[in-house]
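On clarity, I found the account of how folds are encoded harder to follow than it need be. What matters is that the chain and its backbone geometry are given together, residue for residue. For the editor and my fellow referees, an illustration may be useful. For illustration, here is how one protein appears when written out as sequence plus C-alpha cells:

___
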Amino acid sequence: MKGFALASCIAAAAAAPAADFSFDMGRYQKQPYEVGGYFQGSAEHIELDDGAALSALRFPAGAPAAGRRYRGVLEVSGLYRLQGLTFKGLFHAEALDDVAGSTDDAAFYEGYVEGRPAPRWTLSLGKRALRWGKGYAFTTVGFVERAKDATDPDLAREGFKVAAVEYVRSAGGPLQTLSLTALALPVRGTLNDDFGATDDTNLAARLYLLYRDTDIDLMVRTGDSRPDAVGLDFSRNLAPHFAIHGEVAWQHERRRPVLDPANRLRPREAEGADWLLGLRYLTATETTWIAEYYHNGAGYSSQEMRRFYALARSASDDPALRPAARGALEAGYGRPQAMRDYVYLKVSQKEPFDALYWNAGLTAIVNLHDASASVIPEVVYAGLENVELRGRIGLLAGGRDSEFGERQNDWRAELRLRYFF
C-alpha cells in the first residue's frame, strides 16, 4: 500500500505543470549592495528659564521667554560586496536653526572595509562605531566610542578610525561561543584627534563569552591618549521576559578638571570605578520596563557644581568671568550626567487601549544627589507606510543649584517625522 502511495505521488508530481515548482534562487541570494536610511524633520517649542545658571551664561543680556528649534536630518547606511570584501558606510547630515542661529554639519559616521581571510577570522580597517557594553541608557565600558544620549540612546554615533581583527568560535558544552576582538586606534595629527591629545597608538580588546546562557564581556584599553582601563559586563535572562545586566569599569589614574576658589580649572584625581546595574521586563500586556542605576566615578559633587553655577551667574554680569565659565562648561561641567549617581527608568506600552500602530512611553532620569530630574513622556505612531511620527514633551524638575534645575530650558515640546527608505 505504501509503495502504491509513493508511486502515485511521483506520478502526480511528474504530471503537474512545471511552473508550479519554479524557484527563483535570485530572490534568496545576497545582492552586491544594500542601501537604507531616513529623512527626518522636527520642530520644537522651548520655554526658557531666565533664572537658571546656564541661561545666564548663554544669554548674558537676558534669555528670551521662549524659542523655536527646527532640525532636518538625512542618514544613509549601505554596504557593497566585492570579491570577498564588504565595504560599509553610514552618512549623517544635519541642519539646525534655533534662537542661537543656524548650523549645519555632514560627516561619515562610519566608512570601513571588512574581509574574512579564514572562516573564523574577520579583519576590518576604517572608521567604525563600536558599541561595547550591556547598558541601555548609559555605558561604563565604551572604551573606544562616543557617549550615548541617555534621552535617545538608539541614535547613531560617529565612530573612530581603527584597524581591528576578530576571531569567533562556537562549540558545544557550557562555553557555547567565544570571540576575541583586538584593535588599534592611532592618534596622529588630525587622525582621531578628538579621542585624545597625545600622539600615540591606543590598543583595546574585548573577549566575549556565551557561557551557560550568560553573555559576558571582558574589555581592556591601553595607550597614552586616555587612562588605561579594564571592564566587565554581563547579561542574562532570569525568565523568558525578565533579564538583568551590569557593567563595571576601572580607569587607572583618571583625572577630572575642577574649579578652584579662584575659578581656575585644576586637574584632580577622580574615582577609578564606574558601574551600572539594570533590568528589562516585558509584561503579558506588552509593557516594557527598563531600569538602570549608574555610578559615575568621575562625576562632580554637589559642592563642586554649586561653585560652577555661582561662576556662571556672575559671568552674566562680569564679562571678564565668561571665558572661565565657558571653559568649565566645555571641560566637563556641562556634559550630560556630570554628577555621580543616577537612576534611569523607561516604561513603554505597545498599542495602549488597543490603539493600532500607537506606542506610548515615559522616560525619567533622576539625579540622586540633588533630587532633580528629566521626565519625557512620548507617543509614537507608525500606521503610515515607511513613516514614523513621534511627539515628546521634555520636562525638567529641580530647584536652584540642582543639575536639571539649572539647565536653560523649563520644558520643550517636540514633533518629529521620519521617512524611511
User: Anything to note?
Assistant: The helical segments are 2-15, 53-58, 302-317, 322-333. The longest helix spans residues 302-317. DSSP finds four helices and 20 strands in the chain.
